[in-house]
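Before the break, one more example. Copy the sequence into your notebook; we will annotate it together after we see the structure.
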Amino acid sequence: MRDNEKPIQMQKKDAPTTGSHPDSTSARIRDVAHLEELLSEPTPGVIDTVARTQGDFIVLGVGGKMGPTLARMLVRACAAAGARRRVIGVSRFGAGGLAAQLASHGVETISCDLLDPIALARLPDVPNVIFMAGMKFGSAGQQARTWAMNTYLPGMVAEKYCRSRIVAFSTGNVYPMMPVQNGGCTEAHEPGPVGEYAMSCLGRERIFEHFCRTLGIPMVLLRLNYAVEMRYGVLVDLAQRVAADQPVDLTMGNVNAIWQGDANAIAIQTLDRAASPPFVLNLTGPQTLSVRAVCEELGQLMGRQPRFIGSEAEGALLSNAGLYRRLFGEPRVGPAQLLKWTANWVMRGGESLGKPTHFETRDGKF
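Here is what the structure looks like once it is written out:
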């Protein structure tokens, strides 16, 4: 059977796909502190990668949804490996105390508007760069800034860090929608972005690839689709609708999802894979998840009856995780465990980032 070939029908008998995660069978995540501890826990593979990697790390765009826990994972991996490395997080850092929080966990912080060429030039030269900056939400009303962030900035960063290795986050939105039975797009599929956001993301990849090839910069392009945790993600979106007795639109009938802690871990490990031309990896869970089945399972866990509108379209935005599995094995946390954690968190009124993923969007307007 090909990876992602059949949609997973979530039932209580389904076993979670887990590895060595110490809390992978826990029924609940206690609070935000516990959540961030799990999201930033380094795997043995991360610790080994950090031990082998020479030089410091810089995370550009550390202020996003994934950046804080990824940077913290780097710090924890350095400590576990006995490696004295600086981990630097760069963001505009508005109000909210994120810079102080990161500093408390050993992450050095620099406030910087990356689109400011003078400020970018002043950043320290660091051999290991993780690029997480970009724009998605609100892009429908700010197309020019979206293109600047997603396409112009990568060229600026590539020139600044032309002697470094770069792991750059991209998105599965660069792919076209595919029939569910095809198992999702592999890294070899031709891109087919829908809408300006997705086109600008393909532009990001092309600009990075240009500098990778012409300057010989070792690079990785990570096509993420979709990272989830308890405060954000497609599973939270669905759980909130089921809990609030809101109808769920089934038109985008299938999705991929990956525990954000696993996405963080694989992103760091791909530093070993940086190459010219760039190494491309679909960063996603190996299961194709049926939105209907996920909602029905969430309904059972939360004591709610999900309501649906529409019906499943033939195509969906899906990525194939076959290469991920061959290189890195199974994720530590699988969908059954994620649904248990999510249902419990939402029903307890756990903290939410208040940023819907709009995973159901089919016209590319975010």
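The chain has one domain: 7-347. Residues 9-20 have pLDDT under 50 and may be disordered. Try to locate both features in your own notes.
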